Amino acid sequence: MKEIKVCSSFKVFDSIDELNDQIKSLFKEAFLIRKSAYSQYSKFSVGAAVLLENGEILSGSNQENSSYPSGLCAERTVLFYANSKYPNIKVKEIAIVAGSTEKINEIPVAPCGACRQVISEYQSKQNSNIGLYFMGEKGKIIYTDSINNLLPFKFDKTFL
Ligand code: THU
Description:
By secondary structure, this protein is α+β, with helices and mostly antiparallel strands. Helices cover 25% and strands 22% of the residues. Strands 1-6-5-4-2-3 form a six-stranded mixed sheet, with helices on both faces. Strand 4, helix 3 (113-126) and strand 5 form a beta-alpha-beta unit. Helix 2 (74-85) runs parallel beside helix 3 (113-126). The protein is globular, with a radius of gyration of 16 Å. The chain binds tetrahydrodeoxyuridine. Residues 39, 42, 44, 46, 62, 64, 71, 73-75, 111-112, 115 line the site of tetrahydrodeoxyuridine.
């Protein structure tokens, strides 16, 4: 038997003011699109914005459904959109803003497992890291330079 230690690294920013202008713009779009979330069932709204290699920013929000599993998270909404619109352009960064519509959330909300898997897929596909920033409606922002930090033992095409 041997033990494997997995080490993940994250940066914590106290507020958006500490981020560079490009990431501030990315969060601006994430905040904006969060308003369009269709989240009447969970009352939990999420906005996600991606910065592409060509400088363009795309954004998406969570879209729920009366048949609950038919809904989709904000992160996957925007990543599927980005990869549909520009299948050959890399995603450089993703910014996520999330919280209940009924109370202010100041705790950074990390992407769910299914979204981690999808981020991981596109990171492998494009052969370069996707930087990931996530936050609540206000307060601290957590950053990591690769989804591998959130999904260390990933499932990918090498198993197929
Ligand atoms: N949600 C996201 O949009 N992203 C996540 O990573 C976690 C959860 C959405 C799905 C659902 O509409 C609501 O938040 C509550 O789970």
